[in-house]
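Dear colleagues,

For the upcoming journal club I promised to circulate an example of a predicted protein-ligand complex. I picked one with magnesium ion because it came up in last month's discussion. The inputs are reproduced below in full, followed by the predicted structure.
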Amino acid sequence: MEPVLELRNVTKSFGGLRVTADVSFSVAPGSISAIIGPNGAGKTTLFNQITGYLKPDGGKILFQGKDITNLSTREIVTLGMARAFQVTSFFPEETVLDNVRVACLSQMNKTRNLLKSVSVFNEATDQAFKILESIGLQNVADRAGFELAHGDQKLLDIGIALALQPKALLLDEPTSGMSPEERLLTRNLIKRLWKEFSLTLIFIEHDMDTVFGIAQTVRVLQMGRLLAEGSPEEIRRNPEVITAYLGEEVL
Amino acid sequence: MNQSSGAREIILLGLFLLVFGSVPFIKQSDYHLMLANHVLIWGMFAVAFNMLFGVTGMLSFGQALYYGLGAYSVGLVVKNYGSAMFLPALGLGLVLTIVISILVGLLVIRLSGVYFTVLTLAFGQLAWQITFRWYRFTGGDDGIQGIMPSGLLENHTVYYYFTLALVVVSIWFLWRVANSPMGLVLRCIRQNPERVRFLGRRVRRNQLRIYVISSFFAALAGGLMAGVTNSIHPDMFYWTSSGEVILMAVLGGIGQFFGPFIGATVIIVIQDVVGARTEYWSLIIGIIMMIMVLGMPKGLVGEIRGLMARYAAGKVNRG
Ligand SMILES: Nc1ncnc2c1ncn2[C@@H]1O[C@H](COP(=O)(O)OP(=O)(O)O)[C@@H](O)[C@H]1O
Ligand SMILES: [Mg+2]
């Protein structure tokens, strides 16, 4: 099967600092996989390049067989890639409903309309409520985004991405800053969303229970280099990965 | 639109028409009519400006460029081709504004934050300089007097209702924009432009759209004002005109759709009351403004709505 996402020798430096060093991998359609690695390894920068927010210095990125290396974020999103952010990103003064609804309207290509009220777009509103139910925020639909607790804001960020009906969804540290209970809920939620929306899902995560609990494939980045790639079992046993990142306790 | 907000809109509109529609019947002199005209025109200008500033987060310090363009289109055409051309001249000013605001807009939206603000100011001042220096064409510092609308519009009361009608339609249009999907995208652009790109939307394209729309109504305000004061003056292009509309919006409350209209009303009334009593009126207005802006950071309408919400919550709590 053709990979949904393919990176070929992607390279990126900031000044003299190599943050992406000749990274190549393919992501199978419908899979769920994790990217792990120490802080500063270049994980977020990799997502930034995949979503067109940063241009790689070299190499190629293909999405559904199409070269997207030089496309803008807007074009890549339109092709079916969506993303949630490590530093939670949403629209703080809008209601939770409108945060998701604006994404629904964008996906339905209705955002050029300037004479009809947002509330007459029933299809977008229904879709937004469906998303809110999926992420468990339907009871706070009328609250402003900034009023939510941190954990709920992380979910809202994911909800906005989901509302774009993406084929591929990238989540950057979805459980960061969450309590252990919230983490467990979010882990199960991610797994459920992956199935419910038939996504190809890639997530960056530091919480190893989440990584080894739901990922089919794990990729390890270290100093911009792809150190290892394999099943959770393989990664857990990989001696290089253990010295570089996991340490002994995960064994 | 759900029913309750639809009903509220109609009540608001009715009230607005009642208050402003009755001015010609209750006025004691033509001066009051002129004052009401000023409130309507600056109120519309301020609401349109706020679509740019309060809604989209683009603080233009150069809307005088379009206010002046609208006014000078009317003034110069009427002076050279006669009163009969008043309405076509108004239209010409609007068309010119669309063209020029697209061209200027393409340049200024490349910058954001304070750089955007400074560049808009520079364009406004450039237009003022040209108007000021080009004496033979524009009348320079003297401006042009005796700009009369033709036909029925020559009558002050008719002209007032003409203005009222255009202002109501304009504000209704802007209200629709504010509540539309595009309006929602504009608010999102103010709060988090990066995320808007990740929704698959063009940030700059939307900023340009609202820049042109907002400038269009600034030009309409200028053109209408030329018919109210029967004169044009290079000060209409000056940065103080841009500053005045900013003050109106901030005073009334940039977070509220109608806030800037109330801000315009308050400033025009204060100018009138204070200006009649002392020559230091601009100093006194400055002080009043400072106190109001510092004491009411959400603006008049924002603070009043906050108080009403607190009062309502208190009532609920007490049972
Ligand atoms: N825009 C940027 N300009 C310069 N350096 C950057 C930029 N973004 C990230 N970096 C640097 O690149 C390295 C990798 O960062 P990042 O991709 O955020 O790591 P991770 O997400 O794996 O923690 C870090 O050293 C970081 O300081
Ligand atoms: Mg990161």
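Two points we might discuss: Strands of chain B lie at 144-145, 231-232. Chain B touches chain A through 25 residues (CB under 8 Å).

See you all on Thursday,
B. R.
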